[in-house]
Amino acid sequence: MKANKTKVFDLTSEQLGAVEERAVDLMEGLVWPDGPVCPHCGNQDRIYQLRGRTARPGLRKCGACRKQFTVRVGTIFEGSHIPLSKWLIAIYMMCSYPKGVSASQLSRTLDISYKSAWALCRKIREAKARSPLRERLRALDGGRAAKRPASARS
User: Fold this and answer.
1) C-alpha 20, offset from chain centre
2) 31, 23, 41: which is closest to 87 by C-alpha?
């Protein structure tokens, strides 16, 4: 008899919605510390939050160019159907484990397909290799990444 394994997201749809909203709020605070900025025209003055049953969490509209956007635009999350909360858990797992995490482990933990987990891993690894993100991650993990020998870094 198999033991019941608890998945990260064994939550009701209402609880998942609340988790996703908190993930969007967290990313908005990191990406836009001084308030939202339109990625299309750079406007910061007339940005409106769209609400309602059909509006996804964090959807905004620029009053200048009249285009819609979210915090995902211009990031590694853009074009992905994976919820932002699962992205953040994957980033945490890949940055906190010294040897990293395999795509198959991510697919089991996040309850997504292997193909999606592989693409997610690839995008996160590419983003970690970029200099500005590397410096932010180094600051977040207390400098542990800087203390590792060059051969241990990927």
Assistant:
1) 10
2) 23
Asked if the structure places residue 8 within a domain, the reply is no
Angle at 28 between CA 20 and CA 118, to 5 degrees: 60
Is the residue at 19 inside a domain?
yes
Domain count, the chain: 2
Residues 97 and 63 in one domain: no
Domain shared by 89 and 148, yes or no: yes
5: in domain: no
Q: Give me 17's structure tokens.
A: 């919605």
How confident is the prediction along the chain (154 residues), in pLDDT tens digits per residue?
Answer: 444 444 555 545 555 567 778 888 888 888 888 889 999 988 898 999 988 888 888 899 999 999 999 988 888 888 889 998 899 889 888 888 888 889 999 999 999 999 999 999 999 888 888 766 556 656 655 555 445 455 554 4
Q: Which domain holds residue 37?
A: 13-69
Burial class of residue 74 in the structure, from the number of CB atoms within 10 Å of its CB (0-12 exposed, 13-18 middle, 19+ buried):
exposed
Give pTM, 2 decimals: 0.71
Please report, to the nearest 10 degrees, the dihedral formed by the alpha carbons of residues 126, 129, 130, 136 taken in order: 110
Q: Are residues 134 and 102 in the same domain?
A: yes
